[in-house]
Amino acid sequence: MNIQQIDVTEKVVSLKEPFITALRTVTEVEVIEVKITLDSGITGVGSAVPTYAITGESKESIIAAIEHPITDALLHTPVYSFQEMIRLVQKSCIQNYSAKAAVDMALHDAYSKSLGIDLLEFFGGGSIPLQNDMTISLSSKEEMNQQMQRHTRAGFTQMKVKLGTSGKEDIARILYLAENANENIEFRIDANQAWSPKEAITLIHVLEANQVPVQFIEQPVAADDLEGLKYVREHVHLPIMADESCRTLKDAHHIIKMGAADMLNIKLMKCGGLNEARAIADLAQTVRMPCMVGSMMESHLSVAPIAALASAHPNITMVDLDAPLWLEDEEAKSNLFYEDGVVSWRKSTEARLSI
């Protein structure tokens, strides 16, 4: 079987409410969708989103990379050489990881369908629901508490808290949330690169002294400051997770070699696809470093594939896959099912994970 056609479309999806972090404010998402058609008529789909502040990719650059170097590399390649096709995507151009991820997903989707299975079965994952978190967008402490109470009523027990203004304000926010949280609530603190190393240490020591139930601190310092990340890790007890610092397999190797983090956050838009994501998780497993999978503000088309991988990989122990819950109408379209703080798969004999 051959790839007969690669189609690229785009759409804009509105958010139910603004998503605010230390890096950006999002009110709508530009989604670039890819459909690969095989000569058998089987189709595979994937998607990408531009995230200037993290990947440096724009809508225009993603579309250009897919329509030209990636399509040129893939068109009419036999589908039975699946791994070679994946390698061709990665070699087609430098960087452009979000564009590569969209095509990588579509290839996985098409290939698994050609085998008569879906992506969940392809990776060998089970049907056990994944414990998910819900993000508390950066705002005043009172508004953030309202978000937390709403998420608690929806069944979430793990709250990902966006911080990243001044250290004093951030301390006030998280202590206020801790005071008002149910006893079963745990926090994941995400500064999105906003703190200096010393500021991060001071803030984390306050959290530790007040025994705030924090699972980890995510990306406290600038992405390119691995020495600073390591310095923070060496001076606190709470686990440190690398997110923006860990884009590719090469980045993961460097972080591990330096001892700069305790955990890694893997995202398809950063690393370039499912094969690369699995390789990062495999590498981290060799040194017993647990991984979380997450996403940008993405549609279900790109969240579902990473959820399938997470269900199967023993070293992916946490997920941060709430993005479809922020987007208008996305949850209804997805084969992912969100309820009581977990994400699982809709029970349907005709279900295909990425459609």
TrEMBL record:
Q: Which UniProt keywords apply?
A: Isomerase, Magnesium, Metal-binding
Binding sites annotated in the UniProt record for substrate: 24, 135, 160, 295, 297, 320, 322
EC category: isomerase
Q: Where is the Mandelate racemase/muconate lactonizing enzyme C-terminal domain?
A: 141-239
Its required cofactor(s), as named, are: Mg(2+)
EC no. given is: 5.1.1.-
**GO BP terms in the entry:** peptide metabolic process
Source taxon at top rank: Bacteria
What are the binding positions for Mg(2+) in this chain? 190, 218, 243
Q: Does the keyword Isomerase apply?
A: yes
| Protein name, per record | Dipeptide epimerase
Q: Which organism is it from?
A: Alkalihalophilus pseudofirmus (strain ATCC BAA-2126 / JCM 17055 / OF4)
Q: Which gene encodes it?
A: ykfB
